[in-house]
Amino acid sequence: MGLSLQKGQSLSLTKSDGGSLSRVRMGLGWDSAAPVKRGFFGKAKAADVDLDASAIFFDAQGAVLDTVWFNQLASKDGSTKHTGDNLTGAGDGDDETILVDLPRVSPAVAQIVFVISSYSGQTFDTVENAFCRLVDDSTPALPEVARYQLTDTGTHTAMIMAKVSREGAGWSFTAIGERANGRSVRDLLVPAARFL
C-alpha cells in the first residue's frame, strides 16, 4: 500500500535508493453508488457508471501540448499509453489505466494532469469509492507509490484528479481532487490548467 495522500498533498517520485521512478502507472477506479436493480431472473446488478480517464500535457507556460484519452490512446512523444476504455466500472481495482514512461516524456512537458469525466453525463452522486493511485511500473511487484481516495460526491460530471510535475531532475505527484464539468478531455483543458 502506497502513501495515502489528502487533497493538495504532494510526493516526490524517488525510490528508496534515491533514484527517480521511471515508468509509472496511473490507475483510476470507481464503483456505482446507484441502487442495485433486479434483473429478469431476480439477479441483483448495480447500475453501470461509465467514466473516462485522460491525461493532459502542459508546457511550463500552461499551454496544452498533447492529450491521451479514449480517442487518442498514445501520446505523440510515445511516452504515455491508455490501456483502454472501461464502460461500466465493474470489478475491483483499477478500472482504467494510463502508463507513463517518464524519461520518454517530451522535455517541453512540465506537468501532466490526470482527469476523469463522464461522456454520457453521469454525475458523481452516482459514483462511490473513486480513487487514483500511482504505481511503480518499473518494479516487478508493481508497488503502489501513492493513493488518493476521492470522497467528494455531487452533481458534477468530471474531476481534476492529480498531476505529475517536473521537479528538478525528477518528478512529483500531487493529489488535486477538484470538481469540474465536461464530457471528455476536450472540455477539461481550461479547468485543468487552473491547477498547474
UniProtKB/TrEMBL annotation:
It comes from the Bacteria. Residues 1-16 have a biased composition (Low complexity). Residues 1-20 are annotated as: Disordered. InterPro entries: Stress/Tellurium_Resist, TerD. Residues 1-182 form the TerD domain. Transmembrane segments: none annotated. This is TerD family protein. It comes from Frondihabitans peucedani. The lineage of its organism: Bacteria, Bacillati, Actinomycetota, Actinomycetes, Micrococcales.
